[in-house]
Each structure stands twice: as structure tokens, then as C-alpha cells.
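thread: overnight batch results

M.L. [08:02]
morning all. the overnight job finished for the chain we discussed friday. pasting input first so we're all looking at the same thing
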Amino acid sequence: MSDQNKSSLPAESPSLRADRRVHAAFALACLALVALFLGFEWRARAAALEAAQAHSAQLAAAVLRQSVELTRQAALVTGLVREAQEGAGTGERALELLRHALAAQAGAQPDLREVAVHAADGRLLASSAAAGEESGSARGLPFFEAQRGAGRDALRVGTPLRAPRQGEWLIPVSRRLQSGDGEFAGVVVALLRLRGLDARFAAWDVPPGTVLALHGGDGTLLARHPFVEQAIGMDREASVLSSEHWSGAASGTFDAVSPLDGVERRYGYARDDALPLLALAGVPREAALAAWREQAARDGALAAALLLLVALGGAWAARAVAAQRRAAQALERSMRHLGDLERAIDAHAAVDVSDLNGTLLHVNARFREISRYGDDELVGQNLRMLDADRQPATYFQSMWRTLAAGGVWKGEVRHRAKDGTHHWLDTTIVPCAGAEGQPGRYIAVRSDVSARKQAEIELRQAQHHVAELNQELARLAAFDEVTGLPNRRQLNGALAGELRRAQRSGLPLSVLCVGVDHFEALLDGDGAAAGEDCLRRMAMAVRNVQRRPGDLAARWSGAEFAVLLPDTDAAGALAVAEMVRCGVEMLAIAHGASPRGRVTASIGVYALRPTLHDHPQTLLERATQALWQAREGGGNQVQLHGPVVAEQAAVADESAASLG
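M.L. [08:03]
and the structure it wrote out:
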């Protein structure tokens, strides 16, 4: 090319720069609108959560007021009865008068089921209940034993207990009776109906999923709404209350996940200064955010519509401006000289002209820049000097056949520069006809695509790495890291599939829930490493009972395992459970905090012939209930959920004996 054609392209026009500034301002305005909307919605979300926090604190205070009012009624009755009893003595006439007084006091308080006076040995001296419903001896009951060992008179709100006849849950509010010399003389107790307190809570208008609870002085759960029978009497360690909440301020709020239903809530708590009571109210985060989400959806739709309108208007204006600019550019290009076009090609692509043998006749500046050769080093040389020997001979043979036939060839060629570096060039070769119409020379236009090629290589490597990571993630998602057993997720999938199969076939299905006895004590005494070693060895004992392809042993939760037994009835499941229990004992894992000196297991069993109404979660829940019954029975035993048929129990014993 001549020096005259080597001048640079014209600078960007002022109108184009102005258009870009307008587009940038428009984009920034849209981003600012989006940021403003997001900030507003975030503040609205925070306000919704703060409102839920305040609401939970108000509910906790209301629960405490209701509970204190009811408890003080019982306290007033017990105080009056205590004064009357200590002054009247234990004569028959005095007891008869006391019974009438108790009946009158209980009748005046609809939430009181019974008011009773017990002697120092636990005998019932007087009761407000009818003769056929009178309570028996209180000896051994928690409220009686607590008052007898107290040493002084104090109002106590005890652990809920069941009425012996009707099975109704009652909260004992008791006072100590003392003789003239201060010795223990018995107990006066008022039994509050738990359903009365629950009925008051049920009458309140609260968000769905809200939990209202009342705890005693030692943290025991006295009442809960909605009512969950298994939770009544639960100690503080098993609830959402931590020692910080229990020993801290008289009221406050916190976030926690309920151990009963797994729902995250915003809790408020309030403690009474005089009575040993703490009220708790929890509002689900989802319920607190429901109204915000609905409003945010409406606001988002409105903002999206506004942005869409603005975007459509901007797009229409941009298209109009672009159309005008294209028309101006087309007019400008039509007025340019051929030299301008050549300079444009020189600036963006490598161009070479060669004869039919591949000898270079002309190269442009971009070609020299890529090849690192000077013009005098290239012209007259064959293109083979730049070949990097990366393509097979057949590749170039196909190229020359296409060109010899007068066709345009397109492909990628790798060239080696003078300094030894390699470049991938996206190449288009066009044959130019000579005087007789046959190809006389070739013009090649080449673009350097080395960066793209390198990116493709890196992309393939990254894809391979991602595939390896996905395989590892799939393995981690299906198996427990500590024990190597299938995890809860895999168990749920297998249980759902086996339940459907059993529903179709009518065959039995059994589930075992295996729990380590006193596992928390093992962690406290020997540390986390000993706990993990115990779980791994327990996993071996559980895994050993897998005898059939359909059997599945998995880690269910922290110190609990589950075993799925398809086509197995109660007798077979009990036998397998006994194998697991014996296998754990044979491991002889030392456990200093266990009464037996070694690690033992409690096992819950649930077996059924499924119907279409059965749910996988129900099987696990009932097996877990049987596990808790086994633990409450002392541990190191197998417990079947529901009644045990004698024949099934006999078959299980025979199977256990043969396995032993």
C-alpha cells in the first residue's frame, strides 16, 4: 500500500459520542430506579420482621398475663386452704368442713378441676372432687416430693400430670403445709385444667403457625398452643429456650427453629417477677413476610411495567437515532475513496496476495505485525514457511482443490511467527480470475483468533473440572460424610418408592429407628472425636443387617439411624432389630456415662401393610415414637409401635435366639 493510504480512520463523530452519553444516562436512570425499588422493598421487609418481633413480644406478655391470672387464682385458693388447714387440725369434723370449703373454692373457679389436701405421708385428707373421683395418694408425685424436700413454704407450679381416670392434663399449683414446729405436715394442691388455658389461647386471633407456650420455674413446658401432647413436660434443654434466654432479662425476643415442627419463628418471651412462670410466643417468619411478599409482588409488577414502558420508549428512540446514523454512515462510505476501504482492511485484518504456487506477492501491515517478519522477508517466499505443522496434509489438499476449482475456501490455519510464537488465523481465501477466466492469484483475508482458541481450551478444561465437581457433589448429596451410609435425603427417596410398591402389591413394609443411648453424655465426657468413632462403628452394626437388595440402612439424624425393610412384617422386623441391638452390644464401645459402662442402642420398630392413605413421613414418625418409648423404658431394648401380636413376638424371640 502507498503511504498516502496509510492515514488513520476519522475520529468518532460528536453526534455518536452524544448518543452514547444519552444511552449511558438512560441506563444509569433505569439502574437508579431499580436500586430505589429494591431499597424500598428491603426496608419494607425489615419493617415486616420488626413488626413480627414486636407482635411476638406482645403475645408473650399477653400469654403471661393470662397464665399469671389463672395461676394466682389457684395460688389464692391454696393459700386460703393452707391457712384453714393449719388452724383447724385433722379431726373428722374439721376434714368434713374442709371438704365443703374445697368444693366451694373449686366451684367458684371453672378452670380448677380439683383442690386437694394431702397428709405428710401422701394420703388424701380432703378434696373438692366427688367421692368416686377423688385423687389417691400423692406420694411419689413430683409436686408432692418437691414440697416435702423444700424445707420451707413456697408456691410451686409443677410438671403437668394426667388425671388418673379421665386422662385430662392438669397443672399442679401447690403449697407446703407445716406443723407448729415447722415440720412438713402435707401439701395443698390446686389442679388447673390445661385445656382451659389452651382454650383461652385458641380464642386469640394470631397469624397461622403461631406458637404460644408457658414454661415453669425450672424450664419445664407446662402448656403449648397448638397442643402437642408429646411436648408437655419437655425440659428446657429440648426447647428453643437457651440458658441465655432463661437467665437473662425479664423479657426479650430472638429467632430460633422449633425442634417440634422445624419451623423458623421470631420468638418473644416474658417472665413474671413473683410467680415461677415464663411465657413464650413465636410468629413464623413466613407468616410475618407473607403480606410483604404480596405487596412486593404488586410493587414489582408496577415497577416492571414502568421500566418496560421506559425501555420501549428508549428502544424506539435508539432505533430512530441508529437509523439516522446508519443513513449518514452509508452516505459517508459511498463518498470515500477505495484507499479508505483498504486502510480499514489493513487496520483490522491481515491481507496477503499469493500466486497459484503459494508464493507471496504482497502483504499488508497487519500481516507483518502478526508474522513478526519484514516486508522484504516475506515477499517472494512461499506460505509454507509460516506453517506450524498442526494441520494434516489432507487439510491443505482439500483447500487447494477448492481453490483450483474456483471456489472460496474458509477455515482456520495456525501460523508460526518469526519469534516462534503461534497464532490461529481465521482465513478466507478468494481466487482472482486471470485474463482467461482461470484463477491467477489468491487474496487471503485473515483474522487473529488465538485468544478465542485459548478461551475454548480453557472452557473445555473448566467444563471437565465442573463435571468432576458435579460427580463429587452428587456423591456427597447421597451419603453421610461421617458414617458413609446413605443420608436422610436418599432414605426419603427409597422409603417413598418402597411405600408405593408395597401399596400396589399389598406386601408388608417395616422401618427401624436406631438411636444411641446417652449419646450427649458420651460427647460431653469423651469429646466429638469419640462421638464420631462411635457413630462409625454403630454404622457397621446397622449395615450388617442389610441382607436383601431392597434393604437400606441410612443415617437418619445426629445419633439416629434408620433401616428400611421391604416385604418384612412385624415379627421379621423385631428379629432384625434384635440383631442390631445385639450387634451394638458386641461392639463393646466404652461409655463411662452409661449405666451399663458401654454404648447400647434403643430401637423403635413400625410395621404395616400400607394403604393408599399412608405417607412415608408417618412411618418414620411412628418408628421414632417407638424409639422414644424404648428409651423411656431404660434403653438397650427394642420397642414395637402399637400392640404386639403374641405370635409375632414369639417368632421374633425365636429368630433372636437363633441369631444369638
